[in-house]
Amino acid sequence: MKKILSTIVFCVLVSHFSIAQNLQLHYDFRNTLYGSSLSKTNYITATFEMFKPDKYGSTFMFVDFDFSGSKTNLGTIYAEIARDIKIDSFPVMPHIEYNGGIGSGFVIDNAFLAGGSYNFDIGHFAFNTYLAYKLHTFERLSHDIQWTLSWVADLLSDRLTVSGFVDVWTENLDRSSAIPDKKVIVLSEPQVWYNIFHSFSVGSEVKLSYNFLADRKFYVIPTLAVKYTF
Question: What is the architecture of the domain spanning 9-229?
Answer without folding.
Answer: Beta Barrel (2.40)
